[in-house]
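Table S2 (text version). Query chain:
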Amino acid sequence: MGPVAVEGSWAQWLQEDPGPSGCWRILDVCFVLQVVLILAYSTIIVLGVLGNSLVIYVIYRFKTLRTVTNFFIANLAVADLLVNTLCLPFTLVYTLQGEWKFGSTLCFLLPYAQGLTVHVSTVTLNVIALDRHRCIVYHLETRMRKDVCFTVIALTWVLSAILASPLAIFREYGSFTLEPGHTIQACMEKWPGTNTDGTIYSISMLILQYFLPLSIISFAYARIWSKLRGHVSPAESGVNSSVASERHRRRRKTTKMLVTMVVVFAVSWLPFHAFQLATDIDSAVLDMRDFRLLYTVFHVIAMCSTFANPLLYGWMNRNYRAAFLAVFKCRSGGERERGGRLDSIHPAGGGGGGGGRRAKKIVLETQDVVSTRLNATDV
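Corresponding structure-token output:
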């Protein structure tokens, strides 16, 4: 189910009155909670848009970062960016207003787009884990070809679009009368059969969006970690030295970063999915006085995953950290530095340039890149 998709039993909950003193009574949200929600969602939106845009930009701009794993990371950033722009602003307004203010067309499109992006995120995390499993566990040093990588990314979006399609098909936009003279606009799921159909779909999506992907990812990274821990050092194997040792070090650091990404994703979404599952299994949860408050808090926690990844890249990966710093330095250094530093941040091929070229090779080359080419498992 999409992150802001209205529950099939939403109309039932609308009829519940938490009492005159409840801050979460429909159209009677207290001022303090309004301010907290606006600040929370605004912070997530700003950090998510800036961080994910920066990740996409540096992968596009710096040739050193154009590896298969980074293309998948860029795809993940695109999905998170769409969540920040298509999900959170509308969720904030919808939560504060207590009714659907965006018309019939967006009623069908927004929940679908939101469900689509969540599926893209989970499928992409699986693809990254399986690609690294292929390279590390089976010693396949050859890169996945770029055309194959882009084909996999396209298939990710196609598969996600199919999985999210019921959110657009089984939906209804209309008026709902709370009491005589008080009618609001609602955007709700409408299944052809009983409410059981919606529950079955919701639980199925919970398995496909959360439990199954995390099981696959956990299996892949467990095998990868076991393989890396059992690595025989170059000194023990008699193989030359620094290159193999440095490659192994980068693999371990990159794997740690990617595992941390998955852990953040899993922990962020766990409360929301658990609450959603409880709602689907027992409709009495809707009768809770603080239902809407809990739903919103868990949703905010889940959305934190959309800006966490860029922070992880800057913290745990020196290539990304150096690229981020290079962007800000170039932006503050004027046109001369923008033209020189950005174009020379990767080791260029061919001869010529002499001392001028060496003077321009900065940041990534000096901080992290020990060879002129990254192999299949580098980020």
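Notes on Table S2: Residues 1-28, 233-239, 334-377 have pLDDT under 50 and may be disordered. The radius of gyration is 24 Å.
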